[in-house]
Design a protein that fits this description.
Number of strands: 23
Number of helices: 25
Largest sheet: 5 strands, mixed
Helix content: 40-55%
Mean pLDDT: 94
Structural class: alpha+beta
Shape: globular
Low-confidence stretches: 449-456
Strand order of the largest sheet: 1-3-2-4-5
Length: 687
């Protein structure tokens, strides 16, 4: 019996009609394997994964293959986005055994969960030097019957070896100014001066590294750091990685020039890049960066917002069974949509050729330079959007992931403030409301105060769909990224309840995810026990739980003066010193937070009536500041009790005033926006 029909994950639901007798990850599945005395076959993927769809169609939908699987294994299907802890543990084993990893991930394990054979995609017939999937199934089943002792020993050895691979960072100090400078030098040596980005193909958008470089420039004035950001951001947004018609970035580029993407679009990529482009505009006034900001934010609201107010996880890479079909064009298709003259002009400006840049003579749209005739360009772009809307749209993975929604909330709230778009702030606020109403378990919203119960009784659930929470508990990244989003909502809206809820979530981080020696783990102390407790200090597609926690804890300490949260932030940054010069591309967010620590971070309190134009101008100036990781609190006397940063700070001679502090030690207050701009590194005083 296939047991996926009641899943909340769209990825699992895609497999609910397979003839495979799939189980969800559960104690019952492993009990069934022990009862039948057969190994477990674990298949891990996600809804927007192209090769996951390929293997599903070739093998999991095939009745003969399904029969082999059902007779010889207990088969478990996992959505890696719903259970990243399970994915992380077995991906470590896959990489340790094969030297590589990816999705779909295929793991054979004992009924106690110990992996003994791992791989990724397996074809239906032998090719690429790989056995067919059916050959593998038969070989594993035979080995289980005849070589049980060796298999069980191998599984135990793999678990032991993976557990020994992770170094301890207990007591390690965060990267200081010397290590941060060393990280920049390594990035300079890895930088691609022609196409931007770092390293060679495939190229992933290095959003967290770019944020680190922006903060490093803001603190030190390093012009080369800023130029790496500017060049990379322009190259990505002019290439095929960026949707030139609809906005939004694809997952990665298969080449070094950002020409051909892997076409799925992820919420987390776009949330992280949205903030980077906004900060680039804030630092330089680059109008191209600002255009990318509004187009990307509009795309998030238009394509990913759910009816319940949250943000869906991703858009698929495939349409009608073909990768990228929704996004690519031939010269003939452009002429058909626009007429011959406009079609030929569009081919020229978008780099569409008869040979094509993608498959079957089709091309991904690129925009090497902005056309001189902007009116014609706007008209043609609108016409192509309308024509493309008639195509079959990519499927949407509509589950709401807490961590990624936290990233989107932070990005949209801040961007809305920076570019004057209240609809972005409203969308961020609504998403925060959904997380409170659906994802928080154990305390009602009205009791989310320390006096009413404290953090440890609060449980954050990782996913929801259609307004109903899933069963997967939140990981460290969920608590930290949601806290980051709520802290940004407080900063932008002035509603101190967001600050309170962020504090509740971070209390859970301190009590459930931090050990006595200062080490952080990705799962809580009371979470389900896997063959090893996952703990990854490196930033990958998103900030690691540890880096995300460091950022949220540091900001919360800056708002409240909490020494415990400040100390925990320093502990969470422990890996940054060791990795700064060795692997800065894989600790980008950690280095960005370390830049904030090196700068203070600066604490900006603005005291004055919200409806006073002088308060508004000081507030606007503060948000245009580039000081790394600065926190901003705006309020009057009525809000001082709830926000320690505002306490005992008043107006100056009856005028709204700004206080710039570090460690709650402040410079003399100022009523002058120009003086405040100088203190926070603001480029302009634009209203």
């Amino acid at each position: 019996m296939n047991r996926l029909k009641d899943a909340t994950s769209p990825y699992l639901l895609q497999h609910a009609e397979n003839p495979v007798h799939w189980w969800q990850w559960s104690d019952e599945a492993f009990a069934e394997a022990r009862h039948r005395d057969v190994p477990v076959l674990l298949s891990v993927g996600y809804a927007a994964c192209h090769w996951c769809h390929v293997m599903a169609h070739e093998s999991f939908e095939d009745p003969k293959t399904a029969q082999l699987m059902n007779e010889n294994f207990v088969n478990i299907k996992v959505d890696r986005e719903e259970r990243p802890d399970v994915d992380a543990v077995y991906m470590e084993a896959t990489q340790a055994m094969t030297g590589q990893g990816g999705w779909p991930m295929t793991v054979f394990m004992t009924p106690s969960g110990e992996p003994f054979y791992c791989g990724t995609y397996f074809p239906p017939t032998p090719r690429f030097g790989m056995p067919s999937f059916t050959q593998l199934l038969l070989a594993i089943s035979a080995a289980w019957r005849t070589q049980r002792d060796e298999i069980e020993q191998l599984g135990a050895d793999v678990v032991r070896q993976v557990g020994q691979r992770m170094p301890s960072f207990a007591g390690a100090q965060p990267a200081g100014v010397e290590e941060l400078a060393a990280a920049v030098r390594v990035l300079q040596s890895d930088f691609d001066p022609r196409s931007g980005g770092f390293g060679t193909a495939p190229k992933f958008p290095p959003s967290m590294v770019l944020e680190f470089l922006l903060r490093h420039h803001a603190r030190t004035g390093d012009a080369e750091a800023l130029e790496m950001v500017r060049h990379t951001c322009e190259a990505m947004a002019r290439g095929g990685m960026y949707d030139q018609l609809g906005g939004g970035f694809a997952r990665y580029s298969v080449d070094a020039t950002w020409t051909v993407p892997h076409f799925e679009k992820m919420l987390y990529d776009n949330a992280l890049l949205l903030r980077v482009y906004a900060h680039l505009w804030r630092s330089t006034g680059d109008e191209f960066a600002r255009r990318v900001v509004t187009e990307t934010a509009d795309w998030i609201l238009r394509e990913l917002r759910t009816p319940e107010g949250g943000f869906a996880s991703a858009l698929d890479a495939d349409t009608d069974g073909a990768e990228g079909k929704f996004y690519v064009w031939s010269p003939g298709q452009l002429r058909e949509a626009l007429g011959d003259d406009d079609g030929d002009w569009a081919s020229q400006i978008y780099g569409v050729t008869d040979a094509g840049t993608f498959e079957h003579g089709s091309s991904v749209l690129q925009l090497g330079t902005d056309p001189a005739d902007q009116a014609r360009y706007a008209r043609i772009r609108k016409a192509l959007q309308a024509d493309r809307d008639g195509r079959t749209r990519p499927a949407r993975d509509d589950k709401v992931v807490a961590a990624w929604n936290g990233l989107a909330i932070a990005a949209l709230a801040e961007v809305g403030e920076l570019v004057g778009r209240s609809d972005y702030v409203d969308a961020a606020t609504a998403a925060g409301g959904l997380l409170l109403a659906v994802h928080l378990d154990g305390l009602a919203r009205q009791s989310l105060t320390r006096a009413a119960g404290g953090g440890a009784s609060t449980r954050l659930l990782r996913t929801s769909r259609l307004g109903h929470a899933g069963s997967s508990v939140g990981l460290l990244e969920d608590y930290a990224d949601v806290a980051e989003g709520f802290l940004t909502l407080y900063s932008v809206t002035g509603d101190d309840s967001w600050l309170t809820v962020a504090g509740v979530l971070l209390d859970v981080v301190l009590t459930e995810f931090r050990e006595d020696d200062g080490e952080f783990f990705d799962t809580a102390r009371n979470a389900e026990r896997l063959v090893r407790r996952p703990q990854d200090p490196t930033d990958n597609a998103t900030p690691s739980g540890r880096s995300a926690a460091a950022g949220a804890l540091l900001s919360y300490a800056a708002y409240t003066g909490s020494a415990d949260h400040q100390q925990a932030a320093v502990q969470a940054l422990g890996p940054t010193a060791a990795l700064a010069a060795r692997a800065p591309r894989f600790i980008g967010w950690g280095l960005a937070v370390a830049e904030a620590l090196a700068d203070g971070p600066r604490e900006i309190a603005i005291v004055g009536p919200a409806d006073d134009d002088r308060t508004r101008l000081l507030r606007r100036t503060a948000f245009l500041g580039t000081a790394p990781g600065a926190v901003i609190a705006v309020g009057d006397r009525s809000q001082q009790a709830a926000v320690p940063l505002l306490r005992d700070r008043g107006q100056v001679d009856g005028a709204p005033a700004a206080y710039v502090c570090r460690g709650f030690v402040c410079d003399a207050p100022t009523t002058d926006p120009a003086a405040l701009a100088s203190a926070v590194g603001a480029r302009t005083l634009a209203v």
